[in-house]
Sequence to fold (576 residues):
Amino acid sequence: MNLPVIIKFVIDLLAVLLLALGIKGLSKVKSARDANRLAAFAMSLSVVGLLSYYLGTSGIAIQSWIWIIIGSIIGSLFGAILAKKVPMTSMPETVALFNGCGGMSSLLVALGVAIFPISNSVENLDFFKSLINEVSISVSIFVGAITFTGSIVAMAKLQGWLSTPGWTQSKVRHFVNIVFAVASLIAFFDLINGNTSSIWLLVIVSSLLGIGVTLPIGGADMPVVISLLNSYSGIAAAAAGFVVDSQLLIVAGAMVGAAGLILTQVMCKGMNRSLVSVLFGGSLSAQSTASSGSGEYTNITSCSVEECALTLEAANKVIIVPGYGLAVAQAQHTLREVTKKLEQNGIEVVYAIHPVAGRMPGHMNVLLAEADVPYEQLKEMDVVNPDFPATDVVLVLGANDVVNPQAKNDSSSPLYGMPVLDVQEARTVFVIKRGMSAGYSGIKNDLFDLPNTSMVFGDAKKVLNDLIGELKDLGVGEK
Amino acid sequence: MSFISLLWVLLLGSLLGLELIGKVPPTLHTPLMSGANAISGITMLAALTLIVKAEGNVPLLIIGSVSLGFALFNVVGGFFVTDRMLAMFSRKPSNKK
Fold:
């Protein structure tokens, strides 16, 4: 072994170690931020390792440098700008977009190697002829394409650019996807047989497969899909590692792939959905329209902000249930002002965080942290559920399915079995909501019909602002 | 590296990934996903390899460069956005009175 090889070996080893430590650290609140930086450092280290290896062996042509610099600057610039500008509420779609681009990168690498075999390098000659190489190219293209189109569709659906087309909820979609899958398989074997032109067929059908699989999935299940696609992009990276013969790529890709799978599993548990039903079950709303005709509300109590303020003032213990609607209205800061007033009046305020509040597990925690809500006030579902009977007022802000008692009481409900917050146990429940529309699942919420539930209609931010005004008038929080 | 040893690398890497994410508080799911996502942009190394080995093949250089751009978009954006999220958690102790 000569020096450049040894140096690269040591750097790669170090990078893998740091990446592993980084992922490990990301799973603890205290160390998370440093761990993220550590992982970023490891990634830059790996680039230095690779470039110094080539500088020490074959050298890097000026032309290559130019293209490296162009690609790096454009990619990093756009990435940095998007990361700085994007609002915290759009986090799921942002992760989806980044993820899709990672998949695209693996796809392009494999495509490049497949179309332009690098012939003038001796070590590559038999390597490129080998079956293994064809297989890894195919896998990289297949997984990379699915990751890319799937992530883009997921992003578009979360952004509201794409709705769920009707045909995707019928059985037809399974047939269509099976056709795509079989076509991918045919292209795969054709490619291995040495027919290079079928690579384009593989690119096209696997892209279509990514679209076909993601399109029927409803908004509520999207985080699970993004997490799964995140895992795929790791697998695509590992496959690209086989293509260019890089252990570092394989280790890092495999780590991300495996970690992504675990995270997906955790999310599924939180929503009481199996991965199979997420992927092949279609969106929940499609099932519920078929299930029962109990879509009408019979006993809605509507109330004014003033009444809500009066009840809050008289309370001893208040639990806030924030949901995605709160985030959409960007009302987390206004909410914080309301709770500050209540706290100044000696009222105990706690936030009940459902595992899938917001759009992704942990998303709501991020949003509330942004509004400076103390960490100790955020209670997880299992901790807070026994507290509801002793609670005077529950404020439900833009949450819907996660407070639906149907999940406990109605075994025919598609939500049945999903863990929910038992808000109906509290003395009074105020639901702040724009209108009577259903949640992501598209299912009627029995909570709204209960006698101890009052609806306060309006945009979350506006209602909270009004609430601040009313509380002021009542002298709450004034010294 | 022989294919077999690369397979070992794949296997051990996967096991490591499974082991690393044992217990994660729900708070950290989103940042963790975002951070892991940034790491999956490690394909930038493959893109770099492609560019270096292209040796004057312009279409290949372009493909490599675009691929590098996509990967770095993922890496840089991913780490920055994760840092932004985590900054919100670490800010709290200083605000506590």
